[in-house]
Specification:
Elements lengths: L3 E3 L11 E2 L4 E2 L3 E6 L2 E7 L8 E7 L2 E13 L11 E10 L10 E5 L2 E7 L3
Parallel strand pairs: 3-8
Antiparallel strand pairs: 1-4, 2-3, 4-5, 5-10, 6-7, 7-8, 9-10
Amino acid sequence: MTSTTRFDPSPPPQGSGWNVAASCIQPLYNLFVTAYEVVLTVDLPYVEEKRVKLKRTTEDSIEVYAETNRKITFKDLGIKHRRGEFTCYHAIIRMPVPVNERKITKKFKRGLLEVHIPRTK
């Protein structure tokens, strides 16, 4: 039986998470830390798997970037109090523990990206 810890490793967002100039929005994500790995799930509606890019930006963070199939409005997502549109998702997510980025595995199904990253010993 493995223990699981759940927390948000990033500081509270400054602003809206929406970059108007780049037409990008920060996606919703969850980060789970177990005894053996870090599991990252990222919600990427209206995205095809071939348009998802993962990159390690620093020793303790991973960048997720994905282009959408079309322009998405906030109304498409059921948001009524904001107007605008975007064409990509972008987030830099800090890893709370040391990880081995060479052994990353990912699955993408119906707009949900699931990334498994083994912890270093």
